Structure formats: C-alpha cells, structure tokens
Amino acid sequence: MENLIQFDSKGKLRKQITTSRSSYGYHTVTKEGEMLYAEREKKAIFRLYTDMAAKKLIGTMCWEPHSIYTSKTNGDIIVGMAHDTDWEVSKVTRYSAEGIKLQDIQKNENDENLFKSTRYITENINGDICTSDTRGEKVVVVTKSGKHRFPYDGHQAQTEFQPCGICTDVLGHILVCNGFNGFCSRFFSIHLINKDGNFQGFILGPQQCPAAPNTLCIDDEHNLWLGAEDNSSVLVYKYLENKDK
C-alpha cells in the first residue's frame, strides 16, 4: 500500500489517502487543483476531487500506468505506461482533460521502441514530452507530435546514470535526478540540461545532494522541491529569482 499525503505551505498535514501498490511519478495536480493518480495494479487513472472523493477517469486496459503529468497549457493528461506482460515494452499516451484518448507514442521512425520504461514524465514549455527511462539509463525527449528529438544519457563526469524524478523550468531547462533506488552514492545529483539536450551543469552534485534523490518539481515561485528515498523530509531550494516580479 502507498500513501498520498498533502501538506500546506507551512508543512501542516491537509489530506492523506491510501492507494494500492503504485509506481513512481504516479500523481499530478490539474490547473483546477484536483489530484490525478495512477493505480498500477488496477490499470486505471483516478481523479481525486477537493472533497476527497475519488472517481475512476481512465482505464488503461493491458497497460500499467507508471507516471502521469497534466499539461499546464491545455490540461491534457500525459501517461507513461508499461505492458502488463512485458515491462520493457512501454509507451506514452495522451488523453484529454476529460479522459478521451488522443495519442499513443511508442515507436521511432525506424519502428523501434522509444522507451524501455517510463518512470517519471513531464512536459517542457515548447510542448516536448520528457521521460525518465530508468531501464534505458537515459532521458528520452519527443515532440508534442511524438517525433523523437534526443536522448540524454548523463554526463561524462558520472559513469553511471539512472534517471528518475524530472521537471522543467520557465526557461525550458530540464532538471533530472540521478540516483534511482539509491544505486550508487558517488553519483547522486541533479542534472540541468537545456531544451536541446545539452548538459548545463549540476544543480546539486554528490557532495550536496541528499541520498537517493527520487522526485522533484518547481513551484510557481520558482522554488525547487526535492524528495529523496533516504530522507523523511521534503527539501526546498531557491532555484530562480521570481520572474513574475
């Protein structure tokens, strides 16, 4: 069993619900402030309303939903999934805000699978879909139409790269955690790459990064929120000066 827990900005508990055994980046929040979450074993996406009532929105048939993101531009729901009989057959599916299937992204122009896994997923300001492919040991970026743009497989300073949590900022940079399941403390870090896949630097290197960084996001004030497997706290960093002021 897993718990989804919501706190206010001061760290006070607001809501908590229990879900079945889930996956990785398996929850997101809509523009209206309602939570969506994936139930991997039930092969479904649920909407959690503000009164805490949960209702099934999407059934994913023979695909297990592992990661989910709601578009900030149009409310589309973007889901990373693995086939229930072969976890190395994965795809990304786009749904409307109402749960209507719009698009499947699975193969490149050579009819090869784009993804081995879709652990965490996000969208960039240019519409690109960015996925942490942990089994493939890379970040996979495709256009909104599903065309493969580039892979990012880490930086030469780190000989191992197992990406997990991923997000983007207002400048189109991609931030990604290296350290899935705490595989090697020497490489725990947060990588910063630009929208074209070029490494820009480490936001947090191995000396500063908490153990096993798993998930991250940037809020409306441009603060970086970071969760780590071996840390019972959520860490908050000043990332960018507030561009809205």
Secondary structure layout plus pairing:
Elements (H helix, E strand, L loop, with lengths): L1 E6 L5 E7 L7 E3 L5 E5 L4 E5 L5 E6 L3 E8 L6 E7 L2 E10 L5 E5 L14 E4 L5 E5 L4 E5 L5 E5 L10 E6 L5 E5 L10 E5 L5 E6 L8 E6 L4 E6 L5 E5 L7
Antiparallel strand pairs: 1-2, 3-4, 4-5, 5-6, 7-8, 8-9, 9-10, 11-12, 12-13, 13-14, 15-16, 16-17, 17-18, 19-20, 20-21
Please tell me about this protein's structure.
The chain has strands at 2-7, 13-19, 27-29, 35-39, 44-48, 54-59, 63-70, 77-83, 86-95, 101-105, 120-123, 129-133, 138-142, 148-152, 163-168, 174-178, 189-193, 199-204, 213-218, 223-228, 234-238. The strands form 6 sheets. It has a 4-stranded antiparallel β-sheet, with no helix packed on it. A 4-stranded antiparallel β-sheet has the order 7-8-9-10, with no helix packed on it. It has a 4-stranded antiparallel β-sheet with strand order 11-12-13-14, with no helix packed on it. β7 (63-70) and β8 (77-83) form a beta hairpin. The protein has a domain at 1-118: TolB, C-terminal domain (Neuraminidase, 6 Propeller). With 245 residues, the chain is mainly β. 38% of the residues are buried.
Task: Please sum up the structure shown.
This protein has no helices and 21 strands. It is mainly beta.
Keywords:
mainly beta, 21 strands, Neuraminidase, four-stranded antiparallel β-sheet, 245 residues, globular
What is the CATH topology descriptor of one domain? Neuraminidase
CATH classification class of one domain = Mainly Beta
Q: SSE order, as H and E?
A: EEEEEEEEEEEEEEEEEEEEE
Any idea what the CATH superfamily of one domain is called? TolB, C-terminal domain
Give unreliable regions as ranges: none
